[in-house]
Design a protein that fits this description.
2 copies of one chain form a homodimer. Chain A is α/β, with parallel strands linked by helices. Chain A has 8 helices and 6 strands. The longest helix of chain A has 19 residues. The radius of gyration of chain A is 22 Å and the shape is globular.
Chain lengths: 206, 206
C-alpha cells in the first residue's frame, strides 16, 4: 500500500532532521494526525515563519531579532571579555551561567570531512574584532571534541601570528574552558582522557 | 538572554511531540536555522497541509485519501479475512508482509488511565461489520501489551455474546497473531513472559 501523499511528504521532511530516522518520522507524523486541524496548521506555520525577522548580529554573529543583538548592546556586560563558541545554542547554554562578557559565534567547527574550512567560519571576523578593540581575555569555548579542539588551536595560532606582527596586543589573555568531570558525574565511568584532563586541571583545595 | 520569539515558539512546538524533550527541540530548531529560507518554508507548509484531503475510511477507519480507502476497494484482496489493529501505522507495518486480507483500525486501545473506553474506539463499527458480512477469520493484531491484550479480550468477549444470540455466525474463526521470540533476537535476553509464550506457541519442526 502506498501512503497518502501528504503523509509520505511529512514523514520525508521529518526524516531529514538530525537524529530522526524513518520510524520516528512516521511516529511523529501519525501523532500529528491525531491532533486537531488547527494545531497542525499552527505547528506548520510556526516552522514556516521560523526565520522571519531573524538576522545574524554583525558583531558577534549570534542569531538575533536585531542587529547588533541584545547582548552586544547590553550596557551591563563586561566588554573586555570575549567568549568564542561554535553555535548559537552554546550562547544559550552559557547565558544560564554567571558569564557576563561578550560572545563570538563561529558558526561551526573546522571539519575537512564535511568540507568546512576556516574560511567558512567567522574566524576572519573574530581576528578583525581582536585587532580593532583591545579585549583583556579571550575564552575559547568550542566543544571539547576533536574538531572543537582543532578549531580552537587553529584560532590561537592565528592570534599568536598577529600578536607577533603587533596587530593584536600581546597582553590579550587566551584561556580555554576547563575540561574535567561533569558535576554529578561518576569518576569510575569517566573515560581516561577526561580523567587525565581532570587531574591536569586540578586546583588548590580551599 | 531571552530567545527570539520565533525560535522560542518553534522549540515549544517541537517539545510537544512525543519523545522530544526541550533540548532535542532546541537542537532541531537550530538545525532548521542553518537551512535555507525555502527549505524551512517547505517543511512548515508540508506539515500545515498534512491533514489536507485526508479522511477516515468509513469501512476500515484507516486514514486515506479516498472513502472507501484503496485497500477496501482492492479487488485482489481476500475479503474473507479481517485483521483488527490499533493504529494506521500498524496497517503500514502489516502491508510489508504477505498479508492480503482486509483491516479494521480501532483507533487506539482501551486504557482507563487515559480515559479511553470501548466507546471511544471503533469497536461498535467492527461488530457491525461482522454482523453484516460473514467473514471466515478475524485476526486480532493489537499490540502484545497489557492494553492490547485487554482490548483484544474485550472484543472477543463481545463477539462471543453476539455469536450466542446468532447475530454473528458461529463459524467465524478468531485468531491472535503469534507471540514469541522476535526474528534475529537473542533467547538468553528474552523476558520470561515472551519465552513462556514462545514455548506455548511452539510448532512442529518440519
Amino acid at each position: 500500500m502506498s501512503l497518502p501523499k501528504s503523509i509520505q511528504k511529512t514523514i520525508n521532511e521529518f526524516s531529514r532532521l538530525p537524529g530522526i530516522g524513518s520510524k520516528t518520522a512516521a511516529r511523529l507524523t501519525f501523532y500529528l494526525l491525531t491532533k486537531s486541524n488547527e494545531d497542525v496548521k499552527n505547528f506548520g506555520s510556526t516552522i514556516a515563519n521560523l526565520k522571519e525577522g531573524l538576522v545574524f548580529c554583525s558583531k558577534c554573529f549570534n542569531i538575533s531579532e536585531s542587529d547588533p543583538c541584545k547582548i552586544c548592546l547590553d550596557q551591563d556586560r563586561n566588554i573586555d571579555i570575549l567568549c568564542v563558541v561554535e553555535e548559537p545554542l552554546d550562547v544559550i547554554a552559557l547565558e544560564k551561567t554567571n558569564y557576563k562578557g561578550l560572545y563570538h559565534v563561529l558558526g561551526g567547527v573546522i571539519s575537512p570531512i564535511d568540507g568546512v574550512g576556516p574560511e567558512n567560519l567567522r574566524i576572519a571576523q573574530l581576528l578583525d574584532r581582536l585587532k580593532k578593540r583591545n579585549f583583556k581575555e579571550l575564552i575559547m569555548a568550542t566543544d571539547p571534541s576533536l574538531e572543537g579542539e582543532a578549531t580552537a588551536s587553529y584560532i590561537v595560532d592565528e592570534i599568536e601570528k598577529l600578536k607577533k606582527s603587533d596587530k593584536i596586543k600581546k597582553d590579550l589573555r587566551i584561556t580555554r574552558i576547563a575540561r574535567g568531570l561533569p558535576v554529578g558525574g561518576d569518576l569510575e565511568y569517566a573515560d581516561e582522557v577526561t580523567l587525565e584532563r581532570a587531574i591536569e586541571g586540578r586546583r588548590k583545595y580551599r
